[in-house]
Amino acid sequence: DAGVIQSPRHEVTEMGQEVTLRCKPISGHDYLFWYRQTMMRGLELLIYFNNNVPIDDSGMPEDRFSAKMPNASFSTLKIQPSEPRDSAVYFCASSDFSDEQFFGPGTRLTVL
Amino acid sequence: KQEVTQIPAALSVPEGENLVLNCSFTDSAIYNLQWFRQDPGKGLTSLLLIQSSQREQTSGRLNASLDKSSGRSTLYIAASQPGDSATYLCAVFRDDKIIFGKGTRLHILP
Asked: How many CB atoms lie within 10 A of CB A84?
C-alpha cells in the first residue's frame, strides 16, 4: 500500500480564495482524520470520520472550514474564504480498528 | 480538560547515550497513548501505541511506558544514533478526543 496520500503538497493562495485539500486513506482503514499543525498551537485535530460519517468536528475552527468524505477512498478539506491565519501544515491520517494512526506527508498551506 | 505536556521542548544528547523523553497528561481516564516521530517537512510516523490496559510497549531500541495513575508516559531510546534526530510527539486518546503534546525536538550529536 502506498500509505496515506495527500495533495497538493504545497499550496500558496491569496486571502479570500477557496482552498481544497485532498486525502486518500490507506485501503481498508475506516477512520480518517484531518489535523492542522502550527508552531504556536502544535498539532490539532480538526475533524474525523468513521465509515465516511463525520464523528467529531469540534476542532474545526469556524464555518469557513468544511470537510467531506464522499466514499471510503477520498476526503476533502475545504477553506472558503481563506485567511492568512489559516497558513499551516494540514495532515490527513487514517486508521483501522487498532487505533494506530498512519499519517500522510501533509499539505503546507500559505495564505498571502 | 485534558492537557498534554512534553518537557523539555528540546534536547541534545551525544551519540550512543540512552535517553528518556517525557509526556504528562492531566486526565488519567485515557483510552490509549501514542508516540510519534516527525522529521522536518514530513508527516508523523507512528512509533508505539500503548493501550490503557498496558504498561509498556517495545519496538527495537524504543520502549514506551504508561503510568495512568500518575499521568505520565516515557519514551526510552537506547544507544541513540544521529538518525534518531527528530521531533517526538505523544498523543492521548479518550472517547472521541485526541490531544497532542507540542513535542520534544531531539538532536543527537555525532
From this structure: 10
Alpha carbon distance B105, A73 (integer Å):
33
Whether residue A97 lies within 8 A of chain B, CB to CB, comes out as no
pLDDT at position B75: 98
Contact A31/B at CB under 8 A? no
- What residues of chain A lie within 8 A of the CB of B34, using their CB? 99-101
pLDDT digits (tens), chain B, 110 positions? 889 999 999 999 999 999 999 999 998 888 889 899 988 756 678 899 888 889 999 999 999 999 999 999 999 999 999 999 999 999 998 766 778 898 999 999 99
State how far the Cα of B89 lies from the Cα of B46, in Å rounded to an integer.
9
- Mean pLDDT for A49-56 is 92
Nearest-Cα residue of chain A relative to residue B48: A100
Chain A environment of B43 (Cβ under 8 Å): 4, 91, 93, 103-106
From the number of C-beta atoms within 10 Å of its C-beta (0-12, 13-18, 19+), residue A75 rates as buried
Is A104 at the interface with chain B, CB within 8 A? yes
Which residue type does A63 have? D
